[in-house]
Protein: LCCL domain-containing protein
Organism: Coregonus suidteri
Amino acid sequence: MKGVPQDWLRGFGLLFFARTVLSMVIPNSTHLEAILEKYMNKNDEWWVSKQRGKRAITEGDMHLILDLHNKLRGQVYPQASNMEYMVWDTELERSAEHWAHTCLWEHGPQHMLTQIGQNLGAHWGRDRPPTFHVQAWYDEVRDYSYPYPQECNPHCPFRCSGPVCTHYTQMVWATSSHIGCAINVCYNMNVWGMIWTKAVYLVCNYSPPGNWWGHAPYKHGRPCSACPPSYGGGCRDNLCYKENGVQRRPAPELEETNYIEPEPQPEPRAQEPRARPLPPTPSSNDNVERNEVVSTEQMCQQMDCETKLRDRCKGTTCNRYECPPGCLSSPGKVIGTGYYDMQSSVCGAGLHAGIIDDGGGWLDVTRQGRKPHFTKSYKNGIQSVAMNRSANAFNIFTVPVKAVTCETTVARFCPYKKPARHCPRMYCPRNCLHETRARVIGTQWYSDKSSICRAAIHAGVIQNDSGGYLDVQPVDKRRQYSGSYQNGISSESLQNPSGGKAFRVFAVI
Ligand SMILES: *[C@@H]1O[C@H](CO)[C@@H](O)[C@H](O)[C@H]1NC(C)=O
Ligand SMILES: *[C@@H]1O[C@H](CO)[C@@H](O)[C@H](O)[C@H]1NC(C)=O
Ligand SMILES: *[C@@H]1O[C@H](CO)[C@@H](O)[C@H](O)[C@H]1NC(C)=O
């Protein structure tokens, strides 16, 4: 019986065969050049063969990765009776290469994910052999409890006491006998919202795929006592082994006879990082598990007393502003009463409307579309002027603050509406890390079914220990949400959601 994939356990609803959550490593940049050299030295074997359209990885790295897999597969505890020897597969290598070249920090391509297993690793900085990632995947074993047959009734439990165990279970999936990996250097790679100028990206594809829900990765028993008949009883280093079956399939030779060496392609143009405030620099922390992320990006824009709304109402975040104290003495020009012309000073209009006082503070702005004329008045110490021309207008509201619980979702609390709406500023309690039933779907952009407070911890906007204030910006739905492990929370992936909207969380500083 074909099971449901393991990630289903974490509620990866729509993906029939969701892949493992990404693994990532953040070393420092000291020895970056060395590893990059290796992949960029145009005289190097890898580069030369790459130019001939052959390899996505050096021969040496291929052996390192493959041998480490077989070594670890042969040494699993409890012992495996049906673990198959892994062989290199150039088709898998090619598909991994194709994906590594997208430089997308997520699993893919989508259409292949039902047919292959996939583990990913990326790092920048310190020179790392690719086996560093392979070992990190394997090390998830410490959180994994092997399900013995007596527990598998009717399905085996999946017990993982850490954030992720599916890299490990894919590596030691008995029937996943083929592997192919590729390494690519990616420029300006977006890793969970952080832009890595140069990242080394490792993609390993496995076939047949593992991580079937309700199944143990392998059978427990005397090594090689339950090998598939096709192995003819062969056994080597505790692995089902067939003399002729393990010849590494050589890369299919291209038609070299008429093959014309192409001009070396210029290095693919790095993707431009999205225009957004610089993300926090990845720390020298190279601990795979912790992956601490801090975000200080604010939705609220800080204004000077005289700044006009027109000059600061850009993009989608033109709704919440912070005014400094002391604007009564220099309020700028204020046009209108009740609603104000876009040329008005935001803080001046805020004072006039009585939303803030001379102590400064926060205010929300809503655009009102065109108004035929604007009237003058003297209010709260501010003289506003009239205007007879029709012009775009805005009005001003206080920023409400609401305390929410760890379970509160944007869908229930403040769903997206067109045009953009204001959500109250929220206050999250402490200790939402413990509310593990409250889902978090996505990274940076979250599905509106996610817990707001847990998404905020995941995004690094608030901390578990203290809770705190945050701003939420509901946005229209997104085609896909990618899961990640950050700040102690493993978020879910979701592709092509059938309904629901999304949101972002922002720091309040
Ligand atoms: C980076 O790593 C190297 C060794 O791998 C170490 O000597 C150096 O101090 C590290 N630099 C920083 C900034 O952590
Ligand atoms: C605005 O227009 C009205 C008539 O349409 C006029 O009476 C008034 O004086 C005008 N005000 C200004 C400030 O131009
Ligand atoms: C989360 O915060 C609570 C309350 O401050 C604390 O008791 C708990 O240990 C924290 N949990 C983690 C995993 O840090």
User: Anything to note?
Assistant: The CA atoms of residues 208 and 379 lie 73 Å apart. The pocket of 2-acetamido-2-deoxy-beta-D-glucopyranose (ligand 3) is lined by residues 430-431, 433, 464-465, 488 (CB under 6 Å). The first helix runs from residue 32 to 40. Confidence is low (pLDDT under 50) at residues 1-53, 246-290.
